[in-house]
């Protein structure tokens, strides 16, 4: 069974800068896995009624139901599909990037 090549990625992730957690925290995540191209999953379903010529120009933030957008993405034609095996992930403790403010909206966030 071909497992594909081994890859390593380092991904930054951020959290905080909210009313309850004013500090901005950065997490470092190291991922190691084997990856190979595969056939895309087949998703069966009816295209959403909002996909008419008239509604194609509607901006994403104007969707009334976010589930409709998710279904549209799942039913769209896939570009690439990958299979991930032997996944190993390590997340380091967070580092404070910014002490922030108790009022994040005042800083434009």
TrEMBL record:
InterPro entries: NDX1-like. It comes from the Eukaryota. This is Uncharacterized protein. It comes from Ambrosia artemisiifolia (Common ragweed). The lineage of its organism: Eukaryota, Viridiplantae, Streptophyta, Embryophyta, Tracheophyta.
């Amino acid at each position: 069974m071909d497992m594909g090549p081994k890859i390593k990625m380092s991904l930054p992730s951020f959290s905080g800068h909210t009313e309850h957690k004013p500090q901005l925290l950065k997490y470092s995540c190291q991922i190691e896995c084997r990856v190979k191209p595969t056939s895309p999953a087949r998703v069966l379903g009816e295209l959403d009624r909002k996909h008419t010529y008239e509604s194609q120009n509607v901006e994403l933030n104007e969707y009334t139901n976010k589930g409709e957008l998710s279904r549209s993405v799942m039913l769209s034609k896939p570009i690439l599909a990958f299979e991930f095996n032997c996944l190993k992930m390590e997340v380091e403790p967070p580092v404070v990037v910014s002490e922030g403010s108790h009022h994040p909206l005042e800083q434009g966030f």
